[in-house]
Amino acid sequence: MMNVLQEQLEVKNFIGGVFHNESSEFLSVISPLDGKEIGKVPMSDGKILDKAVNAAKKAFVSWSAKTIKERVQVFFRYRSLLEAHIEELSDLVRLEGGKTYQEAKAEVEKAIELCEFAVSLPQIVQHEIQEVSRGVECRVEKKPLGVVASISPFNFPSMVPHWTIPNAIVLGNTMIVKPSEKVPLSLMRVAELLKEAGLPDGVFNVVNGGKEIVEEICDHPAIEAVSFVGSTTVAKIVYQRATNSLKRCLALGGAKNHLIVLPDADVEMTASNVVASMSGCAGQRCMAASVMVGVDQVDHIINKMVAVARDIIPGDGVGAVISEEAKKRIETYITNAEKNGAKILLDGRNTIVKGKEKGFYVGPTIIDYVTPDMEIAKEEIFGPVISIIRTNDLQEAIKVENTSNYGNAAAVFTQSGALAKEVMEQASAGMIGVNIGVPVPREPFPFGGWNESKFGVGDITGRSSIEFWTKNKKTTTKWHKQAQVNWMS
Ligand code: NAD
Q1: Ligand 1: which residue has its CA nearest to atom 20?
Q2: How far does residue 229's CA lie from ligand 1's centre (Å)?
Q3: Quick check: CB of 288 below 6 Å from ligand 1?
């Protein structure tokens, strides 16, 4: 078992059940917690991808021939292994992603929940059959696609890969997973644990790298489907490139989530929910609150938000952002907003954590009097920053939400069911919260946004993923008694 917390790690690809390292180019993996190098990640090329695809193709023959009830057995054991190793896995996520321990643990717990959905698939995926006319039956069976790929972002090194791994494999596919080059450590441990759980060699493969390997995945003729999660800019590139080479593709992109706050909202609950949504995981969640649209008089809630956020201690209550570059980018957004006339109520710039002076910390930041035309109101900031836009009524607030190019999540805080319903019906987002700051649908409900937050059909988790990872075989049978008699005589 590797001990990543005490020594530097050479990240390896995992191909055909074996760790390999044949790359000539490596990138440093830096821990956001203290800015130290914790490992090196290989930048793989097309030849390495070919090896992984060949291993996956070979494994597909016997893996797809098993019944779904046989395949889930591996994930019953794997789920137990995740639970048994939760502390070590959470430490790994914390180390490479810069999260607090509690946030990292919540992410691994979510990976466990995703496995629980996957092991229930035999109860859900049943073939359809009907006698459509006397003696004639139609049946539809869900068949695996073959070799599939999954590409993930930096902000959830464990959870996001688990959106795809258990379901795709249980449904009979074999897989190539490409983690973010910024956080490649967790998946090495996932590979080890899947092997320990009894997953046959070649069913699950990890190929590390960046842009080049993603392009190779999109172009590879033997990969049938590509699932992508990351920024909208790259989601568009991947969706266009993968579908251009005639693959099935689902590409989840970035977000700019609006929380609409009405004056009748419960003060304590709303303030703590909004602050937790914008500052949790240092704002690096595609479900993070980025804009609070205050309707009419909400100063009492804003004051409480500032008080709650001021008590959050960087390095303890809020983790680090992923890189030095990200810290600079976030701070520049705050500075530009101030220059353009917004008012900084709480300023997280220039945050330094004692003993971790080289870590990449930004404190919770609340910016008031932002207008919809400002860059900070439109672009994804991906840091613990919330912009407040003030509107006179709910329809104006909904209009502000609707102008966003994104559409991952939106939420409303109110005690009025009728007003909440207006937001539920009119917000242009795939996931809506009522008095909930991070409205992530829990299993078995599907996860996915609208507009430029997602390209492709369906959602990435839940029942929706069954359609993505399978193809329907339609069979029509006619057992005509007269025909049989003729043949037998
Ligand atoms: P990113 O788009 O920079 O990278 C995602 C993946 O694409 C990585 O594996 C990376 O190696 C690869 N990549 C980067 N540039 C590429 C290029 N030019 N061509 C091909 N591949 C490329 O995203 P990130 O910074 O790692 O993650 C943060 C983003 O992900 C945010 O925008 C966030 O909102 C989004 N995200 C969305 C969801 C969702 O459910 N919609 C979930 C998590 C994160």
Answers
A1: 211
A2: 6
A3: no
Q: What is the DSSP annotation of 29-42?
A: EE-TTT--EEEEEE
Here the tokens at position 180 are 């973010």
pLDDT score recorded for residue 290 = 97
- CB of 160 within 6 A of ligand 1: the answer is yes
**Ligand 1 site, residue 382, Cβ cutoff 6 A:** yes
* Average pLDDT, integer, range 214-225: 98
Q: Which of 408, 405, 271, 396 is nearest to 345 (CA)?
A: 271
Gap between the terminal Cα atoms of the chain: 67
Q: Is the CB of 251 under 6 A from ligand 1?
A: no
CA distance 44 to 49: 7
Catalytically active residues are 286
Query: CA nearest 449: which of 419, 404, 418?
Result: 404
Average model confidence (pLDDT) across the chain: 96
pLDDT, tens digit, 9 for 90 and up, residues 314-363: 999 999 999 999 999 999 999 999 999 999 999 999 999 999 999 999 99
CA of 214 to the centre of ligand 1 (A): 11
Mean pLDDT of all residues in 372-381: 97
Q: Residue 1 to residues 76, 192, 193, 322: CA-CA distances in angstroms? A: 21, 8, 10, 26
Q: Whose Cα sits closest to atom 21 in ligand 1?
A: 211
C-beta 42 within 6 A of ligand 1: no
Q: Ligand 1: which residue has its CA nearest to atom 27?
A: 153
According to CATH, the topology of domain 257-405+409-434 is Aldehyde Dehydrogenase; Chain A, domain 2 (3.40.309)
Q: What is the pTM of this model?
A: 0.96
The predicted pLDDT at position 6 comes to: 53
Report pLDDT digits (tens) over 121-143.
999 998 899 999 999 999 999 99
Domain ranges within the chain, ordered by starting residue? 9-254+450-473, 257-405+409-434
CATH of the domain spanning 9-254+450-473, picked from 3.40.605.10, 2.40.10.220, 3.40.50.150, 3.30.450.20:
3.40.605.10
Which pLDDT belongs to residue 2? 46
Which residue among 214, 228, 244, 382 is best mutated to probe the pocket of ligand 1, counting the most ligand atoms within 8 A of its Cβ? 214
